[in-house]
Amino acid sequence: MDRTEVTFPSAGLDCAAWLYRPDGPGPHPLVVMAHGFSGTRELRLDAYAERFQAAGLGALLFDYRFFGASAGQPRQLLDITCQLHDWHHAVAYARGLDWVDPARIGLFGSSYSGGHVVTVAAEDPRIAALVAQCPFADGLATVRRIGPLPALRLTGHALLDQLGALAGREPHYVPAVAAPGAAGMMTTPDAKPGMEALVPAETNWRNRVAARVGLRVPFYRPGRKAGAVRCPALWCVTDRDSLCPAENTVRHARKAPRGEIQRYPIGHFDIYLGEWFERAVADQTEFLRRHLLAGSPGEET
């Protein structure tokens, strides 16, 4: 496996990334990748990148600023606008690599970043393909799914953090995942065990985020931009999703002009491991090869 530690600049900060180069001189297509809500690159996304690399696709798997191995203070600040800017800077970095074909850049996002890639592709018509896995498509739908009492509890923490930020204080943090009934961003029964199952022994992941993002989640509705995505788009929908309601996701996905939908009878976190990972990554690899490799030198059309 040819994996290199690299950094790229985003708003004056260094974002850490793993760069996967496939065999051969190139130019190669490349898939830009980042994780979901609070996630860092080592939480199973490296397994996807390795599969893409083995199939002849480059991959750039990065951590957002304020998270993981990337720079930025305060830590664990989940700013949606900043994360979208990080995506655009990652794409620009990838297009500048001497072994990459800048016309064949794809995106892979999962959960929260599954919404980000829809937004980025809608804003960048040069994106050649995208994969949105168990994607966050509609903040209002997610808030309805988690229920009014957890949402109300979280709003209190979010207001406390936002007011503290305006006063110049350090962030007020809440767990990214917590047990049902506890304070946290994701408190469905499968959230804490599902997330913890993805965490390796050595990790930069921390189970906390600045609570102010809770004020913004309901208003982030990236699925509404699906109709503006002109590239081929694969939507991998988990039908028993406790966080991103499947039917809502499918409704948005059907508006993508070149969208394809794969459905899996599993929960939100099940797609990262075992049999369902194997099924999903095979579908994703076939899709990406079909749209990023077909017609390139040495490939069948």
UniProtKB/TrEMBL annotation:
Record flagged with keyword Hydrolase: yes
Hydrolase in keyword set: yes
UniProt keyword terms in alphabetical order: Hydrolase
Superkingdom to which the source organism belongs: Bacteria
Span of domain Xaa-Pro dipeptidyl-peptidase-like: 16-172
Classification via Gene3D superfamilies: alpha/beta hydrolase (3.40.50.1820)
SUPFAM superfamilies found in the cross-reference section: alpha/beta-Hydrolases
GO MF annotation terms: carboxylic ester hydrolase activity
Name of one Pfam family that matches: Peptidase_S15
InterPro entries assigned: AB_hydrolase_fold, FrsA_esterase, Xaa-Pro-like_dom
Family: Belongs to the AB hydrolase superfamily.
Protein name: X-Pro dipeptidyl-peptidase-like protein
Organism: Amycolatopsis cihanbeyliensis
